[in-house]
Amino acid sequence: MAKKVKTAAPRKAPAPKLPKVNAGELVSLLDYLRYAVSGFQEADLVFAHGTTDPVSEAAFLIGEALHLRPDQFETFITARVTAAEGKAILDLITARITTRKPAAYLVNKVYMRGLPFYVDERVIVPRSFIGELLETHFGGAEGDGTSLIDDPLAVDSVLDLCTGSGCLAILASRHFPNAVIDAVDISKDALAVAARNVADYNLSEQISLHRGDLFAPLSQRRYDLIISNPPYVDAEGMAGLPRECRAEPALAFDGGSDGLDIIHRILSQARDHLTAEGGLLCEVGRDRPQIEAAYPDLPLLWLDTEDSEGEVFWITARDLV
Ligand SMILES: C[S@@+](CC[C@H](N)C(=O)[O-])C[C@H]1O[C@@H](n2cnc3c(N)ncnc32)[C@H](O)[C@@H]1O
Fold first, then answer.
1. Residue 14 forms part of a structural domain
2. Domain check: are 186 and 158 in the same one?
3. How many CA atoms lie within 13 A of 27 on its CB side?
4. Distance 194 CA to ligand 1 centre (A)
């Protein structure tokens, strides 16, 4: 009879710990910032949820603990921190490292294009490149040829498909003040967060939230502009999501086996929901090569932002066939 071999249960890697701090060792905001950055780097955290590096992430969390806006942080960088404030900061830094949740979930806030939005784990943390593109490509009369819509004040209707926290609909309301805005999501949870943000910005008159599958809840309505940051991660990407992203709703990422399930549906239906002069602005992550291969005749205009190259396309209603 074969001998039973005892195998040790696989050990979980121990959660990274911050080095102990004695009273009085950390004094100023700058001291806490340096300490947090060292801890974040040691723990190999991923930064993709409102900040893109450990210094900005630490500054954001310390600012939140002290009720300071991001633009006030520098002013107080050499200021001393009280014992109670120091504890609040250390609690947040520790939670970021041990839970690996995005900082935005720990403080229920994220800044996008300088505006604060409420977020929690019912919704993806907003970080769409479309926020920047609304500023850079929809200003109208710049005369430098980069504007995609000539007169933002003449935009009467906007649709934000896959709205999540409602952040893009809210940013759109600032660029198209005369537009009636519809925002759709299939997730009841996400819409609850969007409703809170829309109410916080007093925009309930301008923005209507709809629950449903893409265009389904909108009947035959047509829009001057459709913006969308849909789920576009393929199966391989879903399997390799960093822990920070696994804290977010999978529904917000999952684009099917090749990532394009929702994008195909948006491209095939958008024309029926655009006015004659309208256009579609859609974020697709790294899926550009697959989309170009699937639609070789579609004249998609690929747009860049400060932190992305060709991850968002623009197409007019006339060119959508
Ligand atoms: C990548 S997130 C974008 C959220 C938000 N627009 C942003 O930029 O932060 C995609 C959103 O699409 C929603 N969604 C997924 N499938 C959908 C569908 N078939 N119809 C409508 N919304 C959908 C998800 O619930 C999620 O909120």
1. no
2. yes
3. 4
4. 11
Asked if 79 and 127 sit in the same domain, the reply is no
Q: What domain range is 71 assigned to?
A: 29-107
Give 168 Cα–ligand 1 centroid separation in angstroms: 11
Model pTM above 0.90: yes
Looking up residue 95, the CATH number of its domain turns out to be: 1.10.8
Q: In this predicted model, what pLDDT tens digit does every residue of 98-136 receive, in sequence order?
A: 999 999 999 999 999 999 999 999 999 999 999 999 999
Amino acid at 133: L
Nearest CA residue ID for atom 24, ligand 1? 252
Alpha-carbon distance of 48 to 284, in angstroms, equals 16
Confidence of residue 22 (pLDDT cuts 50, 70, 90): confident
The response to whether residue 173 sits with its C-beta less than 6 Å from ligand 1 reads no
Cα(252) to centroid of ligand 1, in Å? 5
Quick one: 225 and 286 in the same domain?
yes
Ligand 1, atom 12: closest residue by C-alpha: 162
Based on the domain organization, do 100 and 125 belong to the same domain? no
Measured between alpha carbons, how far apart are the two ends of the chain, in Å? 71
Does the CB atom of residue 164 touch ligand 1 within 6 A? yes
What angle is formed at CA 211 by the lines to CA 208 and CA 212, rounded to 5 degrees?
130
Structural domain count, the chain? 2
